[in-house]
Design brief:
The protein is mainly β and 188 residues long. The chain has one helix and 16 strands. The termini are far apart.
Length: 188
């Protein structure tokens, strides 16, 4: 039986908001949302999942990756979708491990450049950054009701996500944004 609510432990932040971004893999029709912790090598330990959404967590319950396998063409367009205006920093840890949750609703604006994943219709009392471009809406009882994803970029063969990770971890990128050839390749 799936969990009915995703429970979180929320504390005062001990570090800055980690980098995070949505990369829509065109060839797979899957949205990847990595969360990076510069200077750390976070390793997969556990998961929480439904059919279209999977959270990957480290040993401490920190979010390290989200995968949304529902193709963009099947995201439900909601014309008047309004994201939260503000969010707070927090140290958020997922409390449930190796479990399934009820399938969420996946909604987007008309441009499909931001996304709302709604887990329940419960009233959200707080908005917290899980990462840059990723906001969690949480109830008074620290249950995840929704997830907002901003600044989604199209990616082909993982080039954009690889370049972004190199940028985050201080390594020079071998790809230019939007380019399919290495940056040091001469123009012919």
């Amino acid at each position: 039986m799936p969990v009915t609510a995703i429970k979180l432990n929320i504390k005062i932040p001990t570090a800055s908001v980690p980098p995070g971004r949505g990369f829509y893999q065109l060839e797979e029709e899957t949205l990847y949302l990595p969360v990076e912790y510069p200077g750390e090598q976070c390793r997969f330990f556990s998961y929480l999942e439904s059919d279209p959404v999977s959270f990957q967590l480290d040993r401490d319950g920190r979010l390290i990756f989200i995968e949304i396998t529902l193709p963009r063409r099947r995201w439900r367009i909601k014309p008047n979708l309004v994201p939260p205006e503000t969010a707070e920093s927090a140290d958020i840890r997922f409390l449930d491990f190796r479990d399934r949750f009820t399938e969420p609703a996946v909604l987007c604006n008309e441009k499909k450049d931001f996304l709302l994943v709604r887990f329940s219709r419960g009233a959200a009392t707080h908005n917290y950054y899980l990462a840059q471009n990723l906001i969690a809406q949480v109830t008074e009882n620290h249950q995840l009701t929704a997830l907002w994803v901003f600044d989604i970029v199209d990616d082909l063969a993982g080039r954009e996500i690889a370049a972004w990770r190199k940028l985050i971890h201080g390594k020079p990128s071998s790809f230019r944004k939007g380019a399919a050839v290495p940056a040091n390749t001469p123009n012919i």
